[in-house]
Write a structure and sequence with these properties.
By secondary structure, the protein is mainly α. It is built from four helices and two strands.
């Protein structure tokens, strides 16, 4: 199971190309458990790195998240 920063990096890596994905899609593409994906999404959302689409249960990366991905989290990429 991937937790903490590695899970957050995996989520950002999946969202980095753009688009809006559900937690299940993020979990599948990042190859992490659903729980880890939802926890990472919550942490990233609280820091303004991803944003939810109201009533759609989908998330996308913010400009701030893109910057964090290219400068900090990319080192965790698989």
């Amino acid at each position: 199971m991937v937790t903490g920063t590695m899970a957050e990096a995996a989520v950002l890596g999946v969202l980095a190309p753009g688009g809006m994905l559900t937690a299940a899609q993020i979990s599948e593409q990042a190859q992490i458990t659903g729980w880890s994906a939802r926890r990472a999404i919550g942490q990233l959302e609280s820091r303004g790195l991803v944003m939810a689409v109201p009533y759609a249960s989908r998330w996308s990366i913010t400009p701030r998240g893109s910057t964090a991905w290219t400068t900090k989290f990319r080192r965790y990429a698989r």
